[in-house]
Design brief:
Number of strands: 3
CATH architecture: Up-down Bundle
Distance between the termini: 65 Å
Helix content: over 70%
Shape: globular
Strand content: under 5%
Radius of gyration: 22 Å
Largest sheet: 3 strands, mixed
CATH topology: Rhopdopsin 7-helix transmembrane proteins
Length: about 325
């Protein structure tokens, strides 16, 4: 049988964030609360954008898609990590490990393109305001989101092609809380130096190109904004500050992980937690706390669906149905 197509390893052992059993209950509570915050915060943004007609604009359409991608990015590994805090032997099947690799690059690549699309949206809105609604039509917005998912799919397919035929016959311990391709390839039963270079080159190319496109876009926008002093330009500066903050928080760890060659495993774990958990939390926080339209829309949503009388009516109906 061809050795390169045969795998003796049926499962991998995830070492997690800590090998010590003492902090596991504490970490279980902390990351359960963080994951719940991710779900509630991003679902709230999606619900707010859908329910408020004033937010049916290209910028908020892309923001809702960013929130959806953040939910996906946080969900591919975080539930597994949380349940692993309750068990001593943290294992994952070979197929599930490959699935995690597939989804992290799918959602990560898609989020990069969505961030670039949001920068393009702000460029058109600020630099070409008279043509904004023509250029950023609903059709264009849908195309940008489809491009994001297509780029993510192509990116993850290329990454998977590097790993799917690797032989695994020896060590099976992954020093992280999920299967990441650079860590898994090092466990293969053959020299993977060239494969590791291809993996890093593919991820690094997408990360660096997206980052430079964002830098160029925001540089042009900031130069344009600097020449204006109206109230609308002040609003534009506030929006740009939020966008740039999100870009730095997301791309910083990604570029450091896949481009910088001297990072250690402990640093890898911290960065992995950052872009899979903390970034999906910070995105809704940044976009809602610095955005008056979102805060106003959320206040309307709260007053519409969270009135005390309505809450008591729902509770009374539930109790009445249960008593029946």
């Amino acid at each position: 049988m061809n050795e390169t197509k045969f795998s003796w390893v049926n499962e991998f052992v995830l070492l997690g964030l800590s090998t010590s059993q003492e902090p596991q209950p504490f970490l279980f509570v902390v990351f359960s609360l963080l994951y719940l915050t991710i779900l509630l915060g991003n679902f709230l943004i999606i619900l707010t954008v859908i329910s408020d007609a004033h937010l049916h604009t290209p910028m908020y359409f892309l923001l809702a898609n960013l929130s959806f991608t953040d939910i996906c990015l946080a969900s591919f590994a975080t539930p597994k990590m949380i349940t692993d805090f309750l068990v001593e032997h943290k294992t994952i099947s070979f197929e599930a490990c490959l699935a995690q690799i597939f989804f992290i690059h799918l959602f990560g690549g898609g989020e990069m393109v969505i961030l670039v699309s949001m920068a393009y949206d702000r460029y058109v809105a600020i630099c070409k305001p008279l043509h904004y609604m023509t250029i950023m039509s609903r059709h264009m917005c849908v195309i940008l989101v489809l491009i994001a998912w297509c780029v993510g799919l192509i990116h993850t397919t290329i990454q998977m092609s590097f790993a799917v035929n690797l032989p695994f016959c020896g060590p099976n311990q992954v020093d992280s809380f999920f299967c990441d391709l650079p860590l898994v390839t090092k466990l293969a039963c053959r020299d993977t130096y060239f494969v590791s270079l291809l993996v890093l080159a593919n991820s690094g190319f997408l990360s660096v190109i997206s980052f430079f496109l964002l830098v160029i876009s925001y540089t042009v926008i900031l130069v344009t904004v600097r020449n204006h002093s109206s109230a609308s330009m002040a609003k534009a500066r506030s929006t740009l500050t939020a966008h740039i903050t999100v870009v730095i928080l997301f791309f910083g760890p990604c570029i450091f992980t896949y481009v910088w060659p001297f990072n250690s495993y402990s640093v890898d774990k911290v960065l992995a937690v950052f872009y899979t958990i903390f970034t999906p939390i910070l995105n809704p926080t940044i976009y809602t706390l610095r955005n008056k339209e979102m805060k106003t829309a959320m206040s309307k949503l709260k007053s519409q669906y969270l009135k005390p009388g309505q809450i008591f009516a729902v509770i009374r109906n539930v109790l009445f149905l249960e008593s029946k």
